[in-house]
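Q: Got a minute? One more chain.
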Amino acid sequence: MSKRHLSKYHQSRQKHSPGDKIDQLNLRFRTCRICCPQKETDDEQSRNCECRQPEHRHAIREPISSISWSMKLNTREEINAEHGQLKNDAQYVRLALDTPVDTVDKILRYAWNLDEPSFIVSIIGSTEYFSMNDQLETNLINGLIDLIQKSEAWLITNGYDTGITQLVGQAIQKFKLSNFNNEITAI
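A: Always. Here it is, folded:
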C-alpha cells in the first residue's frame, strides 16, 4: 500500500462514529424470553416479569410461576446491542448483565473516547424522596461538581430520577448550562 493510500486508510479509521465503533465490537445483550411473574407487585393489574418487562414482551407469555427467574434460564443472548444517542446528547448502549469488564472498558475508552479517570465517584440512591435544607443542597451540588471538574473523575449514578440521584442530575444540568466550554463525565 502506498503512503498516500495508507494515510487515507488511517484517516478514514479515525473518523468512525461512536456507533460504528460499537458495531465493530460485536456486543451482545440479553432478552428475557420466559415470563416469571413478579412476587411482590403494588398493582395487581400489571403483569410484569421479574425482569420488570410486561408479560406481552416475552416469547413465552403464559407466566410460569413454578420456576424462579434466572438470567441463564429465562434470557437469550443476542448480538448487536442497541445503542445510540439520547435527546440530551448522552450516549447509551444496552448490554447484558454478564458483559465482561474489558468489553465495557472498550466502549468507554475506544468508542466514546473517554480519558481514564483519576478516580470514580459513585452515587447510588434509592427511589424514595428525601429532603434537605436549601443551603445543604446547594453545598452538595457545588461541591460535587467542583470535585468532579477539578479532578477529572467520572461520576456514576444509577440514573433514577428520584432522591439523591435526581439531585445529582440537576447538578449536572446546572453545570452544563453555566459551563458549556467545560466538560464532566457522568455515567
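A: Helices lie at 3-14, 18-24, 71-74, 101-111, 134-151, 163-178.
Q: Perfect, thanks.
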